[in-house]
UniProtKB/TrEMBL annotation, chain A:
Protein name: ABC-type dipeptide oligopeptide nickel transport system, permease component
Keyword Transit peptide: no
UniProt similarity note: Belongs to the binding-protein-dependent transport system permease family.
Subcellular location: Cell membrane
Transmembrane segments: 99-121, 142-162, 182-205, 241-266, 286-312
Residue ranges constituting the ABC transmembrane type-1 domain according to the UniProt record: 95-305
Membrane topology: Multi-pass membrane protein
SUPFAM superfamilies assigned: MetI-like
Any matching Pfam family: BPD_transp_1_N
Main subcellular location: membrane
Gene Ontology biological process terms in this record: transmembrane transport
Entry GO terms, CC: plasma membrane
Keyword Membrane applies: yes
UniProtKB/TrEMBL annotation, chain B:
Record key words, sorted: Signal, Transport
Any single biological process term in GO: peptide transport
Family: Belongs to the bacterial solute-binding protein 5 family.
Record domain Solute-binding protein family: where: 111-516
Endpoints of the signal sequence: 1-22
Organism whose genome encodes this protein: Companilactobacillus paralimentarius DSM 13238 = JCM 10415
Xref: PROSITE patterns: PROKAR_LIPOPROTEIN
SUPFAM superfamilies, alphabetized: Periplasmic binding protein-like II
Name of the molecule in the record: ABC-type oligopeptide transport system, periplasmic component
GO molecular function term, any single one: peptide transmembrane transporter activity
Listed GO CC annotations: ATP-binding cassette (ABC) transporter complex; periplasmic space
InterPro entries attached to this UniProt entry: Peptide/Ni-bd (IPR030678), SBP_5 (IPR039424), SBP_5_dom (IPR000914)
Length: 319, 606
């Protein structure tokens, strides 16, 4: 298996190179540059040209690309034009926020979805099943940003239970209060994300459980007199987790993608918001770095999913 | 500067492409509301009659919101910052301003430093007050004043605020090129630790009397504190981002990068002592600000010259209980400009082309008379925006020409102007053709914003259609901001014939950078001999006399209105709601102690 993994990683290299080239060229093809619009009656275009030159933005694209690649191998993704600080530091600080938000959302999603899926499958075709199904369909069909806007309005502004902006309180003392404040800030978006993001897990789990219920080994277990509770716990549940496990690889790497909607509505400084801003400001270095990271994460996600799958289900081997 | 997305000017431009930082080196700004044609009258101060609650003030927190749709950049140094949001979130620290100003932004004595101009010797002498200190207790020295110019002019500096105007300082050009290691024209007679700086200029300009001029920088740099950081790395350094020091009434207590700043009184401040225990400033997105104020999460927004809450918010917030509205004319305006020539990159001059589609003055005037800007401003501006009548906004009380008529709706006049100039409908066509009988299609450009922007553009097109002009929106829809300026900043372009956009202004109103012959930002390339003459006269030796200078400004306004090469669209108020528990709020430009004045009358928001 490790041979296969290695081979997969080798194949990723040309993929990443092509991706980086595409990203680089597309970013440059956008109209404007990091300094368009940075004009006011007192600013001097000569200084803007000077800055463009200093940053090598007038060089031919292949030279810019080459410089970028050379820096990349030195672990230097360049400086953000907008934020005037190293891209690695900028992304690093945003990534932390995004990961915490995504992690809590994912954990809560599974906490809600797994019992719901089991419950629905257990009572297949009956009222509880229908309720869960309607719930998942309704939550699935409401656009998420609508949920966020309504959520922040009710719980943030009207009831005032949750903070509505940022990732931490401006006045929190260092140490435990700050950590608590961080948690408090991601609670509302995470709960909303989890409540309205259950559909995949619930539906996969439900249909798997229903399949498993009818399978031979369950019938055998039942005929042996294994208690119903144990059948679900030991026989059905584990086997039904397979498709969800396959999903997990993507989920883990997807943590970093950040949610553009959530971060925008809650003014939460994470990767999603950074991505949107960097496009608006033509912050090339940040755009290329982010897209490259996303690309690599997706490739890794596929690989991870395959590996997890093969661990969970010994019948599956990647060759 | 830069693309701040403040919804300041409602109609034409939600993307204010420029928010001047150089000019806003005073945390507060703008003048009283007298002499405007606004539909509502707002006062720039809120003198609360309730008594100050000493306990609430000392232990309380004043909560301010900074309206921004992206995290702020966190560059506390005014020389290096390039975004209005940064200057807002660090404003309680005073932005290291050197000078205090009067209501006309004229530099007066009494600030961290005094300035004295000597026309004969061609010098400016800056004397720092003896008790001027940084928030870490270090004294403010001559080197601190000088170092600002070094950071500004250094070849490696990341600032976008350097301009060739600074090369008026002796030796600056050589320093900027890197051929000299110091600026020879800046002298420290009492040494680096002294309190006196003498700047030698090649020529003197009357604009030097005003804050925000392009020759004398208005803030100090904490040299001792940052001297070990290479200038190229200053913007990303800890000293600037994590633990900056200031000279103002408050010092930074905590910063959450991109999100919030919190402030406590600075005991080393030379002026009126700060009274409120804590000030916090949180970034709130423009979509949330109305709700955030309505649910009383904030006392107010950060007082600023560019304005934080626009006209749509005004409609929603004006009757909110517990808050008082304050406002003053903005340091900005939106405008229409016509494409009249090109920029000659060899000579560095704008050249008017007589063969341009819009070269005919009558055509331009007619197009402006055809517009109903008054109605648009009334409908969408909610009283905080109104039709501009001249290119100097009313915030410049002294220079603003109140009596200027500008262009109000007059279809009859528009038609007559077009008929007389030979723009007639020929061969039964619905549209007018040009005097030579050729088909005339005019392309109008504008930036995308909100739904109001789009509706406004459609209204303008409709008005032009009414007088028989075939005007089309370039590209069929509003343009994305980068594409828009990318096109207009080309030395020559024939795609857009007229457009609308906005300028945020410096507090020094000279016009050479915007409409001068050599100004690269004169994107319509409007150049005439008379215009050049008038613009030069604003800062020649005659202009040292305030009366003459004022007269020149009025003449120029009259001339520009007649020529209609660039025509004002709307003026607006910067306004903000202030919670009734706040006392002593006054954001007129003459108030240099805005943050020190504030107290609280209760511990909870009203």
């Amino acid at each position: 298996m490790w041979k296969t993994v290695l081979r997969r990683i080798m194949i990723m290299i040309p993929e990443v190179i092509i991706l980086s080239l595409l990203v680089f060229l597309l970013a440059k093809a956008m109209p404007g540059d990091p300094f368009t619009g940075s004009i006011n009656p007192k600013s001097d275009p000569a200084q803007l040209h000077h800055l463009m030159e200093m940053n090598g933005l007038y060089d031919p694209w292949y030279q810019q690309y080459w410089n970028w690649v050379v820096h990349l191998f030195h672990g230097n993704l360049g400086n953000s034009y907008q934020y005037q600080e190293p891209v690695t530091r900028l992304i690093g600080s945003r990534a932390v926020n995004t990961i915490w938000l995504a992690l809590l959302t994912t954990v809560l999603t599974y906490c809600f979805a797994l019992p719901m899926g089991m419950f629905a499958a257990k009572h297949e075709g009956k009222l509880p099943d229908n309720i869960v199904r309607i719930y998942t369909y309704v939550t699935y069909s409401i656009p998420f940003f609508v949920v966020l806007v309504i959520g922040i309005w009710i719980f943030g502004y009207v009831l005032g239970w949750f903070p509505t902006t940022g990732s931490v309180s401006a006045t929190a003392n260092p140490g435990l209060p700050t950590a608590g404040s961080h948690l408090y800030h991601i609670l509302l978006p995470s709960i909303l994300g989890a409540l309205f993001g259950t559909v995949n897990v619930v539906q996969y789990l439900r249909s798997e459980v229903i399949d498993a219920k009818r399978s031979d080994y369950v019938r055998t277990a039942r005929s042996k007199g294994v208690p119903e509770k144990d059948i679900y716990k030991h026989h059905i549940f584990r086997n039904s987790l397979l498709p969800i496990a396959a999903f997990a690889g993507y989920s883990i790497t997807g943590l970093l993608n950040g949610s553009i909607f959530t971060e925008t509505v809650f003014s939460y400084p994470g990767m999603g918001l950074l991505f949107i801003n960097s496009i608006n400001y033509r912050d090339y270095t940040v755009i290329t770095a982010l897209v490259l990271i996303y690309g690599i994460l997706n490739l890794l996600g596929t690989l991870l999913s395959d590996i997890i799958l093969s661990i969970v289900d010994p019948r599956i081997r990647i060759e | 500067m830069v693309k701040t997305k403040n919804k300041v000017i409602l109609s034409a431009v939600t993307l204010l492409a420029a928010v001047t930082l150089a000019g806003c080196s005073n945390g507060n700004s703008s003048s009283s509301s007298s002499g405007t044609t606004a539909q509502i009258k707002l006062k720039s101060s809120f003198k609360n009659s309730a008594a100050t609650d000493k306990n609430a003030t000392k232990n309380g927190t004043l909560k301010l919101a900074e309206v921004a749709d992206s995290p702020f950049q966190g560059i506390s140094d005014p020389v290096l910052a390039s975004n209005a949001a940064d200057s807002h979130v660090f404003s309680p620290g005073g932005l290291n301003n050197l000078f205090t100003v009067d209501k006309n932004y004229k530099i007066i004595d009494g600030g961290l430093a005094n300035q004295k101009l000597d026309r004969k010797a061609k010098t400016a002498t800056i004397t720092i007050r003896s008790n001027g200190k940084w928030s870490n207790g270090d004294p403010v020295t001559a080197k601190d004043v000088e170092y600002a110019y070094e950071v500004l002019g250094n070849k490696e500096s990341t600032t976008s605020q350097y301009s060739s105007d600074f090369e008026n300082i002796e030796g600056m050009a050589a320093y900027h090129k890197g051929t000299a290691s110091t600026i020879s024209g800046i002298e420290m007679p009492d040494g680096e630790k002294g309190k006196k700086v003498v700047i030698h200029f090649k020529h003197m300009s009357p604009s030097m009397k005003f804050s925000g001029n392009s020759f004398i920088w208005g803030s100090a740099e904490p040299y001792e504190y940052i001297k070990n950081v290479p200038i190229a790395k200053l913007a990303s350094s800890e000293q600037i981002r994590k633990n900056p020091i200031f000279t103002g009434p408050y010092k930074l207590d905590k910063i959450v990068t991109g999100e919030s700043t919190s402030w406590v009184p600075n005991k080393f401040y030379y002026g009126k002592k700060a009274q409120i225990g804590h000030i916090t400033i949180n970034v709130v997105s423009s979509n949330n600000i109305v709700k955030a104020i309505q649910s009383k999460k904030y006392d107010s927004v950060v007082p600023s010259a560019s304005g934080e809450v626009g006209g749509t918010s005004y409609k929603k917030l004006k009757n909110l209980k517990g808050y008082t509205k304050v406002g003053q004319p903005a340091l900005s305006y939106s405008y229409f400009a016509f494409n009249l020539g090109h920029f000659d990159t060899k000579t560095g001059k704008n050249v008017a082309d007589s063969n341009k589609k819009m070269a005919n003055k009558s055509l331009r005037q007619a197009m402006m008379y055809a517009l109903n800007v008054d109605d648009v401003a009334k409908k969408f501006g909610n009283g905080v925006a109104w039709r501009g009548n001249t290119l100097i906004p009313p915030v410049f009380t002294k220079y603003y020409d109140k009596s200027a008529k500008g262009y109000s709706l007059n279809l009859k006049k528009a038609n007559k102007l077009l008929d007389d100039a030979g723009y007639k409908k020929r061969n039964g066509s619905k549209w007018r053709s040009d005097p030579k009988g050729k088909k005339l299609t005019i392309y109008f450009g504008g930036m995308s914003g909100n739904s109001i922007t789009e509706a406004t553009y459609q209204d303008y097109l409709q008005q032009w259609h009414k007088v028989g002009l075939n005007v089309k929106l370039y590209g069929g829809k509003p343009m994305e901001m980068n594409s828009f300026y990318d096109l207009l900043q080309k030395p020559s372009q024939n795609k857009i014939d007229l457009w609308t956009a906005a300028w945020s202004l410096s507090s020094e109103p000279s016009q050479s950078q915007l409409y001068g012959e050599t100004a690269p930002f004169n994107m319509g390339h409007f150049v005439t001999k008379k215009n050049t003459e008038l613009i030069n006269k604003m800062n020649d030796s005659s202009a040292w006399n305030d009366k003459t200078r004022t007269k020149t400004f009025k003449q120029w306004q009259e001339y520009m209105n007649d020529q209609a090469g660039v025509v004002p669209e709307e003026f607006n108020y910067v306004w903000q709601p202030v919670n009734n528990r706040v006392k002593g709020f006054d954001f007129s430009p003459a108030n240099n102690e805005l943050f020190s004045d504030l107290t609280l009358t209760s511990s909870k928001l009203k």
